[in-house]
Write a structure and sequence with these properties.
Elements lengths: L1 E6 L15 E4 L3 E3 L5 H10 L9 E3 L5 H4 L2 H6 L5 E5 L4 H8 L4 E4 L3 E4 L2 E3 L12 E5 L2 E6 L6 H11 L16 E7 L7 H13 L2 E7 L4 H11 L11 E3 L3
Parallel strand pairs: 3-4, 4-5, 5-6, 10-11, 11-12
Antiparallel strand pairs: 1-2, 1-13, 2-3, 7-8, 8-9, 9-10
Length: 244
């Protein structure tokens, strides 16, 4: 299992371009979110040797432009992936996508392909879905912005795989979460609250974290201090090989 960040507020490589938003490639054919604009998305993909023609699935976390803005340009290359969106997405957006390619509306948890799941719609008002990816190391949870709360997103991710993550000793009795990565939506959150979220992560069995995008620099620093060597610095150009 390989996860590659292709769009984020920060870049780990000066040859790549940052932008407000998030997008990552899971393996070589599933794109989670599409960043804020297609020019930056496609430029970064090209520089990283990622061919849009190989993308067969696109999963959009929620209906904000910094996560959906690159979709039009991606489809403009001629690629026709199956696009998974929360059922609550605006009707016009869904009809525009359907005019070009296959659209799947997600409500409850669904297995997108073997070992890769959507949490289904989480939250009220601003609804979001996250990815839950089964690996030999444990569950990898990828969030777009985690507007409904990043702890809740992790809980729902664990539920979506039906308890098939490796067991752990103590905690909540659930499986291990090897990694949580993506936007945690903690800008302006107090250090005390961030530490409470980290305590919840520990209870949920979260081993490693790679916060980025809307997490906010102060919160990212707290995660780095608390997780130490299990903190992963994220940004455009990050490639994680998680095996088997």
């Amino acid at each position: 299992m390989k996860i590659t960040i292709v769009y984020d507020n920060k870049t780990l490589d000066s040859n790549l371009t940052s932008g407000w938003g998030f997008s990552c490639l899971v393996d070589d054919d599933l794109l989670f979110d599409t960043g804020g604009d297609s020019r930056t998305l496609l430029s970064n993909m090209a520089k990283m040797g990622i061919d849009p023609a190989g993308i067969r699935i696109v999963v959009l976390s929620h209906a904000h432009g910094d996560h959906t803005g690159g979709l039009g340009g991606l489809l403009g290359t001629g690629v026709r992936p199956t696009v998974y969106v929360p059922r609550s997405f605006p009707g016009r957006f869904k009809s525009d996508v359907r005019a070009l390619t296959t659209l799947v509306e997600v409500h409850g948890p669904v297995e997108i392909r073997p070992g890769i799941h959507s949490t289904g719609e989480v939250g009220r008002g601003l609804v979001e879905q996250a990815l839950a990816v089964e690996t030999g190391q444990g569950l990898v949870v990828v969030t777009g912005c985690a507007h409904p709360g990043v702890v809740e997103m992790v809980r729902r991710a664990k539920e979506s795989v039906g308890g098939r993550t490796p067991p752990r000793v103590g905690g909540d009795g659930g499986g291990e979460v090897y990694l949580v990565m993506g936007g945690f939506h903690l800008g302006g959150t107090s250090q005390r609250r961030v530490k409470a979220i980290i305590a919840d992560f520990r209870q949920l069995g979260v081993q490693k974290v790679a916060p980025c995008h809307c997490t906010g620099d102060p919160a990212i620093r707290v995660f780095a201090e608390e997780y130490g060597s299990d903190f992963i610095k994220a940004g455009v150009g990050l490639v994680l090989d998680i095996g088997p």
